[in-house]
Specification:
The protein is an alpha/beta fold. The chain has one domain: Alpha/Beta hydrolase fold, catalytic domain (Rossmann fold), CATH 3.40.50. It is built from twelve helices and eight strands. Strands 1-2-4-3-5-6-7-8 form an eight-stranded mixed sheet, sandwiched between helices. It is globular, with a radius of gyration of 22 Å.
Length: 307
């Protein structure tokens, strides 16, 4: 018995010593920040260290969503050695929400992306996003092609989405403009939802809207340029990864497929569902990581991407 007890103690002590010698797997650094653009405060989050990263990736969100939707992907990419920045566009998340509709447009959002790159002293980045963010990425490539090292375009909203968009968003605009009490009631209910689970938090962000700002945002986007026209998209020769989804009327498969065929340097990947990247992300995330490593090949080789 004594010998067996000594063996157990020695095994436990050896395991403890090995644990002390084993380096800790620290999570990538996350820093929340804000900057001023055109007189308004915009919030962002950085994941990973720009000084030691393989390269920078800047992600923007869908309409009425916030940068929180990209947190899981940003954390994964940061663990792979990239510096990831997620931005709340004007009228979204923690950023300011002016009530003039003319302040909201795809080109204005693209200017905000470039403004954040300037604020962070980032010369160029792979720029990407989902839905609204996908279109903003395209506009950024048109506005400042020398700053865009690559494009990640998920669920673009182009010609085939117009009919579904006209069905989905005008009722929200009507409610925000003419029945603000309904928007305020939903906002108040959302504030009572317990937080802590990422996708509950994302949905709560969507529901916490201010009527006047929401109406201005929807008005500005619905009656403005939704995306660069096809004649301009065909001249975007920046390498791009385009992700399209079947069975999604707001983001039709045909839009993503046509975009990938229009852009000379685009690669198309079909998602199994509109939520694959959120709830079963391994396959699509691996595609994104491979694309980023290809774009940043030979850059920042001193950094050590996580396995």
């Amino acid at each position: 018995m004594q010998a067996r007890e000594r063996f157990r103690r020695r095994t436990k002590d050896d395991a403890a010593a090995a644990s002390e010698r084993r380096p800790l797997a620290l999570a990538p650094l996350e820093v929340h920040g804000a900057f001023q653009h055109d007189g308004f405060r915009l919030e962002y989050t950085e994941y990973g260290d720009s000084a030691t990263s393989a390269g920078t990736v800047l992600l923007t969100h869908g309409i009425l969503l916030s940068r929180r939707m990209h947190r899981p992907l940003a954390r994964r990419l940061a663990r792979e050695g990239f510096h990831v920045v997620t931005l709340d566009l004007l009228g979204h998340g923690g950023s300011d929400r002016p009530t003039e509709s003319w302040r909201y447009s795809m080109t204005a959002f693209a200017e905000q992306v470039v403004g954040l790159l300037d604020h962070l002293d980032v010369e160029h980045a792979v720029v990407g996003g989902t839905s609204l963010g996908a279109n903003v990425s395209l506009e950024t490539a048109v506005l400042a092609p020398d700053r865009v090292h690559g494009l990640l375009v998920e669920m673009p909203v182009l010609d085939n989405a117009i009919f579904a968009g006209l069905l989905a968003f005008p009722p929200l605009l009507f409610a925000a403009r003419f029945a603000p009490v309904t928007v305020n009631a939903v906002n108040a209910a959302a504030k009572r939802v317990p937080r802590g689970y990422i996708w509950v938090d994302v949905v709560a962000d969507v529901l916490q809207q201010e009527p006047a700002a929401m109406a201005a945002l929807l008005h500005g986007l619905l009656f403005g340029r939704i995306a660069p026209p096809r004649s301009i998209r065909q001249r975007i020769d920046i390498p791009a990864l385009v992700i399209g989804h079947a069975r999604d009327p707001i983001h039709p498969f045909g839009d993503a497929d046509a975009l990938a065929r229009d852009m000379p340097a685009a690669t198309f990947v079909q998602a199994r569902s509109p939520v694959e990247l959120r709830f079963d992300p391994q396959r699509l995330t691996s595609e994104i990581v491979s694309f980023l490593r290809e774009r940043y090949a030979g850059v920042g080789e001193s950094s050590a991407p996580a396995s």
